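One-letter codes give the sequence; the fold follows as tokens. An example follows:
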Amino acid sequence: MIPRPDGQQEKLLQALIEIGQELASTIDLDELLRRILQISREVFRFENAIIRLLDRERRVLVTAAAYGYDEEASRLELPLGKGVMGKVAETGEPILVSDVTAFSAYVPGIQGARSELAVPLLARDRVIGVFNVESPHPNAFGAGDIAPLLTMAGQAAIAIENARLYDNLRSVSRRYQELHQLNSGILRSANLGIYTVDAGLRITSWNRKIEEMSGLGEKEALGCNLFELFPGLVAEGFAARIRRVLETGVAEKLSLSHRNLKGELRFQKRRLTPLKDGERTTGAVVIVEDITEFKRLLEQTVQGEKLAEVGRMSAGIAHEVNNPLSVISYAAQLLLREENLPPFQAELAERIESEVERLKTLTGSLLSFSRGGDTFKRPVDLNEVLRDVLRLVRYELERNNIDLVENYAVLPVVHADSNKLKQVFINLIMNAAHSMGGVGKLVLSTNLVAGDEVEAVVADSGPGIPEEVLPHIFEPFYSTKKEGEGTGLGLYICRNIIVEHEGRLTVESRPGEGATFRVILPIGHLH
């Protein structure tokens, strides 16, 4: 029974105020339930108490906290309407039982119980649970005990509901944070450029890949107007497309060539998807796929097929040319055998035979170079490789007024694929001629290096290679030529060929002083 001697009513009210203040400051549900039971012992002097909270979906009361009850009684779940607590939960009204032996619906609680008092835990006029006490003595509780217990229960119920709301909010916040981290992780890891804009075209997200593509960091991009940062997008037709997506709420896709803030021309596919809030379009997601390397590789593949076909045609033409050349050569030899041939005619016949031999050598080089297939290494004279290459490109050099200087040392043979070496030197020589812009000096030389290596040097008098370009000169798809004039794969392939031959391809250059490429190959046995 709650003690209320004279002068204790005021203390009880003060205690209830303090209870309310303390419970309002506790947001951890388990700690809150522990404090409610502790207060019930300290203020109301209960020998036992149990709090069961309502599971609305299952329509049962589940024990949340208790003292003075054995484990079996605490573990018991009460359906709505069953026992004293079940009826309180069902009706929302307190129940006082003076003698439980006369109450047929009593569900056993403490050992030897005779009386019981249960009050609802009401929060916002809704039952969320029941607070219950029992006693081994009959008539242990009176009607005067109900009001103060209801007051405490009401304060406890509000505190419990607040704690539950806080737990739900914390759980939602944690799930939101986890979802945000997951989304951020996906955006960071995606191999596509992804960003979002709001209805005013201000950037609201900017992933790592789009940073790489654009050359602009996330901090610099967020909150800025997209077209103020990238005015070139307007001329590219992108502005009209994204505004249409914002107006219509219909996704679109397009391909365009885009020059980024670094001045690089990139080819991109873009997909534009509306961001929706219900039926309203609040922004757009832009997914950017850079297809520059793919496009260049495709162009290189097409160009390679064209070159292969040209090679096959060249081989056929060379064979066809060789047949009449043989006839002409034979006729010239017959003329030279004639006696009494005038000196002028004899000189012409000798000239014809000499030119025929030169043409045969040229078509032989063309046939040799046009042959594809795997790498086939054999003993090769590097000087002869250079001379064969010059037979193929000499006309181009003369046409461009290039002054050619040859300086070959006596070299031991190297084991190499002569056709692949010719591919390297043709590329280096033609690059040099192109860099000199129609006039200049090209020096080809060979040397013996350190006793176990030979080198071939291709040096031009052109403008040289800029310092910022030099570190990238052998990278794939890197080209300083105008768009459409080069694939950026020539020097990359050259280096790979030389590496395949266990050699090195190096470059030395200063602006205004030309460029020098060195092909260094080992002297060794065939592998």
User: Anything to note?
Assistant: The chain has four domains: 8-168, 191-290, 298-372, 374-527.
